[in-house]
């Protein structure tokens, strides 16, 4: 299936963790590239084809946030952050730097594999099979993975695109955070709602003319989010 | 067999011990010390009493002596004038003694002439005159004045020799005006003394309150520190006396805070450091587990032990980290509104006994609580773990409104088990860190480190709720753990 041939880049300064995670992910049948620092990671990333990047925030040299921003400049691949704690600012900062999901250390490699699989799911935006979805000045072309704002192409990450497609699935319908967490990230009840909030914020920065006063992705107080023209 | 000698010495030992205990108890029940406030009040009160007393006494004696001096002078002048008139009258008619005496003034007079005493009143007779005065005036022929005591107090007697008629004249002034003046002075002094004492007590009350106020501040700060806000400091003051206390207090708190933070940081650092090897362990164990079939039976058994303990170790490190976060005050709740019964069902479904029955009373169906769902879920998971480990039977979870709740603002999430129940004093102890309850030791290595309930307590406290344990109230043997938490939107 789609998990076959996935190539993961793990950026982690602890050699033993890297080795063990590599072993565990290779058991999934995936290819694992390693980097022990942010500088090395950029180099490896440019040299190889990578489907997903795993970044430990605490890195020597350039830190995980900076590395994440650098990778975002190069690519839209899913990025999973490894943080020390779930309740710090680290999580939000990591997501704002462009990460798609996060894990707290120590995590089970099985959990990591599940997260990666969820992030690599293909976007399936339209049940009706429309080739093009129009929301005012916003245009979504699902098959090509393209989004146009005023006819100019907007670069979204894979996860942002999937989130947008999910919202486009039922235009005008209200999506709760729980529902979006389930659909986009595959999380159950105990998923972190901040994932949705930060991704919505990132999406607005890209597809709204004025991100502070969104017209497309609007908040429905106490209920969730909605996509409109 | 018991050695009788040993028994005796034991008895003696017990006796001396009992005596010692009685002595300590006796020492403890000695009269309570007078508090600082009362001491200040007493000092002010007694001080003002002494002050008022001394002032009143000196004022009175000064007034009295000066009044007496004035009176004496006046009396002497008057007596001489009277005596001169009496002498003149008697020079004219030596027999008209009574007329002559009665003609002058209204004081008491006495005349000794030709060996005969003549007086103007019953009260003032020869016997009323002190012998010394009589001797001075009659025998030595000198004028003299003397204070003497008469029936109703003191009186002045002036004796004057009337040479021309060869007689002696005595005049008595019973000092009525002086006495009256002194009485009003007494009343005035009494009232002013009373007012002084009252003012003294009033000042004492004020001063004692003021003196204790910095202590009250310090006590309040100490209490705040005990409650965990280690950032509390006493306000700096420019009062040189208080500065010493304030500085010492603040230094103490700083030192304590440093120690607490160092301890917390140590726990945190240790746990953080443990996470990296743990990560490697968890990943490696998983790799081995996926190749379980390739291993020999003995290796499989060893692997199972390894897998079990790696996850136990992981749980312990996570608990320690969480505890150290609480100690450092670094826990930030990610609160959100949660539908109570939905949350409880979800939390139970990810606990170690996901099939545990959850009973929800109809009236709490729509109740919403506000909390950090992952932390609250940990609490329920820990309670379920506790029930699983310490009581064989399946627990039941109830969600209902708090019993006997005055304002209906709280719900109870109850985890009820069929174990042996709690013994006396256990209910509080089990929430202490690394406490495992009375049943500890009997159990297998399946149990946790004893941090679960301590963490649950921290989590619930941070959510502004309460958690406690008690024996079941429905007649069935077993314990129940109650989480009380405020509701956000009453049904």
Automatic annotation (TrEMBL), chain A:
It comes from freshwater metagenome. One of its GO terms (cellular component) is cytosol. PROSITE patterns: OMPR_PHOB (PS51755), RESPONSE_REGULATORY (PS50110). One of its GO terms (molecular function) is phosphorelay response regulator activity. Pfam families: Response_reg, Trans_reg_C. One of its GO terms (biological process) is regulation of DNA-templated transcription. This is Unannotated protein. Residues 7-120 form the Response regulatory domain. Residues 130-229 form the OmpR/PhoB-type domain. SUPFAM superfamilies: C-terminal effector domain of the bipartite response regulators, CheY-like. The lineage of its organism: unclassified sequences, metagenomes, ecological metagenomes. InterPro entries: CheY-like_superfamily, OmpR/PhoB-type_DNA-bd, Sig_transdc_resp-reg_C-effctor, Sig_transdc_resp-reg_receiver, WalR-like, WH-like_DNA-bd_sf. Keywords: DNA-binding, Phosphoprotein, Transcription, Transcription regulation, Two-component regulatory system. The keyword Transcription regulation applies.
């Amino acid at each position: 299936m789609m998990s076959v041939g996935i190539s993961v880049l793990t950026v982690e300064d602890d050699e033993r963790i890297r080795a063990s995670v590599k072993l565990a992910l290779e058991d999934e049948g995936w290819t694992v590239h390693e980097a022990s620092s942010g500088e090395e990671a950029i180099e490896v990333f440019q040299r190889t084809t990578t489907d997903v990047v795993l970044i430990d925030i605490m890195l020597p040299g350039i830190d995980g946030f900076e590395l994440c921003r650098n990778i975002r400049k190069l690519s839209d691949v899913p990025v999973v952050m490894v943080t020390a704690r779930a309740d710090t600012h680290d999580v939000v900062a990591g997501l704002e730097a462009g990460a798609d999901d996060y894990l707290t250390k120590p995590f089970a490699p099985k959990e990591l594999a599940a997260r990666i699989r969820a992030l690599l799911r293909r976007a399936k935006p339209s049940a009706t099979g429309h080739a093009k979805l129009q929301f005012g000045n916003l245009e979504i072309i699902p098959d090509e993975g393209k989004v146009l704002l005023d006819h100019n192409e907007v670069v979204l990450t894979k996860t942002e695109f999937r989130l947008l497609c999910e919202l486009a699935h039922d235009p005008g319908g209200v999506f709760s955070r729980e529902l979006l967490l389930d659909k986009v990230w595959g999380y159950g009840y105990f998923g972190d709602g901040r994932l949705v909030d930060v991704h919505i914020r990132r999406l607005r920065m890209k597809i709204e003319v004025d991100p502070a006063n969104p017209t497309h992705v609007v908040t429905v107080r106490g209920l969730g989010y909605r996509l409109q023209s | 067999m018991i050695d009788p000698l040993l028994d005796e010495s034991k008895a003696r030992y017990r006796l001396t011990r009992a005596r010692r205990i009685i002595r300590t108890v006796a020492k403890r029940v000695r009269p309570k010390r007078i508090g600082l406030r009362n001491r200040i009040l007493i000092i002010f009160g007694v001080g003002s009493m002494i002050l008022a007393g001394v002032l009143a006494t000196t004022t009175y004696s000064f007034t009295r002596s000066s009044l007496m001096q004035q009176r004496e002078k006046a009396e002497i002048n008057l007596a001489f004038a009277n005596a001169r008139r009496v002498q003149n009258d008697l020079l004219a008619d030596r027999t008209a003694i009574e007329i002559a005496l009665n003609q002058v003034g209204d004081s008491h007079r006495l005349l000794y002439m030709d060996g005969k005493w003549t007086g103007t009143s019953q009260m003032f007779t020869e016997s009323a005159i002190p012998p010394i005065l009589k001797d001075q005036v009659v025998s030595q022929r000198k004028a003299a004045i003397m204070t003497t005591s008469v029936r109703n107090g003191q009186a002045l007697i002036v004796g004057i020799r009337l040479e021309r008629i060869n007689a002696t004249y005595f005049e008595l002034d019973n000092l009525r005006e002086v006495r009256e003046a002194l009485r009003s002075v007494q009343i005035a002094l009494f009232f002013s003394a009373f007012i002084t004492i009252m003012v003294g007590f009033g000042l004492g009350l004020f001063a004692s309150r003021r003196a204790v106020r910095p202590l009250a501040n310090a006590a309040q700060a100490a209490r705040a520190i005990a409650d965990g806000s280690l950032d509390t400091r006493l306000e700096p003051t420019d009062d040189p006396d208080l500065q010493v206390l304030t500085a010492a207090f603040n230094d103490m708190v700083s030192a304590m805070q440093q120690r607490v933070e160092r301890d917390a940081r140590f726990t945190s650092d240790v746990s953080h450091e443990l996470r990296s090897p743990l990560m490697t362990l968890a990943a490696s164990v998983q790799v081995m587990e996926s190749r379980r079939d390739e291993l020999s039976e003995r290796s499989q058994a060893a692997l199972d032990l390894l897998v079990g303990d790696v996850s136990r170790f992981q749980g312990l490190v996570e608990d320690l980290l969480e505890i150290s976060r609480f100690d450092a005050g670094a826990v930030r709740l990610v609160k959100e509104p949660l539908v109570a019964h939905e949350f409880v069902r979800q939390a139970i479904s990810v606990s170690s006994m996901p099939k545990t029955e959850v009973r929800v009373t109809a009236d709490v169906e729509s109740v919403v609580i506000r909390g950090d769902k992952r932390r609250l879920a940990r609490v329920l998971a820990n309670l379920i773990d506790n029930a699983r480990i310490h009581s064989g039977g399946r627990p039941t979870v109830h969600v209902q409104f708090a019993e006997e709740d005055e304002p209906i603002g709280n719900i109870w999430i109850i985890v009820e088990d069929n174990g042996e129940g709690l013994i006396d004093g256990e209910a509080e102890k089990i929430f202490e860190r690394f406490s495992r309850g009375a049943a500890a030791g009997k159990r297998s290595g399946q149990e946790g480190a004893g941090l679960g309930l301590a963490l649950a307590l921290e989590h619930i406290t941070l959510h502004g709720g309460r958690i406690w344990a008690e024996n079941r109230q429905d007649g069935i043997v077993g314990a129940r753990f109650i989480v009380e938490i405020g509701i956000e939107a009453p049904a």
